[in-house]
Design brief:
By secondary structure, this protein is of the alpha/beta class. It has 2 domains: about 10-45 and about 295-410, Lyase, Ornithine Decarboxylase, Chain A, domain 1 (Beta Barrel), CATH 2.40.37; about 105-290, Alpha-Beta Barrel (TIM Barrel). It is about 30% helix and about 25% strand. The protein is built from 13 helices and 22 strands. Strands 4, 16, 17, 18, 19, 20, 21 and 22 form an 8-stranded mixed β-sheet that branches. The structure holds pyridoxal-5'-phosphate.
Length: about 400
């Protein structure tokens, strides 16, 4: 039988345990479940969110701004909180844009990316004064037309599809034939069209990938990205305000994953930020999603049955794949691995047994923990999945099998 180890200790950072019970935001898990009124739910910790954003911001070299990519966790209360500790918000749909605008952040500090923006979304962004990261010639046509129609100068940036790839990334979003951004070679012609319309280009957006734990690979991508941004900026009549170099900072989810040393990556940015200021009078922007939110969130569900089949123990819980696709292993993973799962009502209890945690859906895909060594648990216990603050409900098929939707709280 395969026993699965997992980096639970790293996941516990910022949480407390009192009398074998997980404590989030000062509230014990059982009481929090009563307060929420139902399981399953997601709970996000204010103090962890704030601490992560502050710690990262303290490491930023001069001339580097931090944006929050809200698709990682678009809960309005979370976005509101992070808007206080970041320099801007990045959105990827009209609805995310409305959430971002509701925080009161200046529209000029909101940028809108996405390869399939609708004409309506483009004109909403122009009307709002939000910066559009244009990803095609057609998007440029539509943005210019909206600007003329509305009598406002659209805030336009160009998303560049670079010719290099981000090595060691969980998801690649740049390099070679890609649906994202505009090929490097096409950029000067589009920039010239924007300038010919009497507009100044706000900046470039160069995003090459996501979930990267390799500092050396990130530094190399940053170097190539800034170099490319400066080369493109050099061909403009007026300069750019910023070069958004993406982010891609990963978090440890699985056994063997080592947390990223962000100080090494950010220190390496200092001379690049200086160069950007000197040669283009621009600042750099990094945009992070999961790095800021994933470790601040847990998914909580209740054991509703305990079964033994051919000697294997199954804890059947009231939540699963439909709420937390990533923890089930079906959100882009090649090989299924267990997320850090714990029994939140029996934390640190010595007596463990090999148990699997399965959800209520009639599919073998609905698996939250495969043969894990966990404290003995029974009906009524609360199961916790750590590293769940990013890509949770909004990245899960919540209507699959028509179970109730998960609740979300910020505590
Ligand atoms: C998804 C995405 C992000 C956030 O990615 P994380 O891995 O959550 O940091 C940032 N920028 C763009 C353009 C994205 O598409």
């Amino acid at each position: 039988m395969r026993l699965v180890e997992f980096p639970l200790h790293a996941s516990l950072e910022g949480f407390d345990v009192v009398d074998e019970e997980l404590v989030i935001g000062g509230i014990g898990l059982r009481r929090l479940a009563e307060r929420v009124g139902a399981t399953p739910f997601y709970a996000y910790s204010r103090s962890i969110l704030e601490a992560r954003a502050r710690a990262l911001r303290a490491q930023l070299p001069a001339g580097v701004h931090l944006h929050y990519a809200i698709k990682a966790n678009p809960m309005p209360a979370v976005v509101q909180l992070l808007s206080q500790f970041t320099d801007g918000l990045d959105v990827a749909s009209g609805r995310e844009m409305r959430v971002a605008l509701d925080t009161g952040v200046s529209p000029s500090l909101i940028s809108f990316a996405g390869p399939g923006k609708s004409e309506a979304e483009i004109s909403q962004a122009v009307a709002a004064g939000v910066t559009l990261n244009l990803e095609s010639e057609r998007q440029l046509d539509q943005a210019l037309a909206a600007g003329h129609r509305l009598g406002v100068a659209p805030q336009l940036a160009l998303r560049v599809n670079p010719s290099f790839e981000l090595k060691g990334s969980g998801m690649k979003m740049g390099g070679g034939a890609k649906p994202f951004g505009i090929d490097e070679a096409r950029i000067p012609a589009l920039a010239a069209r924007i300038e010919a319309d009497g507009l100044a280009l706000v900046g470039f957006h160069i995003y090459s990938g996501s979930q990267n734990l390799n500092a050396a690979a990130l530094i190399e991508a940053q170097r190539l990205t800034v170099e490319l941004g400066l080369k493109l900026a050099g061909s403009l009549r007026s300069g750019v305000r910023w070069i958004n170099i993406g982010g891609g900072f990963g978090v440890p989810y699985f056994p063997g994953d080592k947390p990223l040393d962000t100080s090494v990556v950010l220190d390496a940015l200092a001379p690049m930020a200086q160069a950007a200021r000197a040669s283009a009078d621009a600042h750099l922007v990094i945009e992070l999603g999961r790095y800021l939110v994933a470790p601040a969130g847990v998914y909580v569900c209740r054991v509703i049955d305990r079964k033994v089949s051919e000697g294997q123990v199954f804890l059947v819980v009231d939540g699963g794949l439909h709420h937390h696709l990533a923890a089930s292993g079906n959100f882009g993973q090649v090989i299924r691995k267990n997320y850090p799962v714990a029994i939140g009502t029996a934390m640190g209890r010595a007596q463990c047994a090999v148990q699997s945690v399965v959800g209520p859906l009639c599919t073998p895909l609905d698996l939250l923990g495969d043969r894990m060594s966990l404290p003995l648990a029974d009906v009524g216990d609360l199961v916790v999945v750590f590293q769940s603050g990013a890509y949770g409900p909004s990245a899960s098929p919540t209507r699959f099998l028509s179970h109730p939707e998960p609740l979300e709280v910020l505590v």
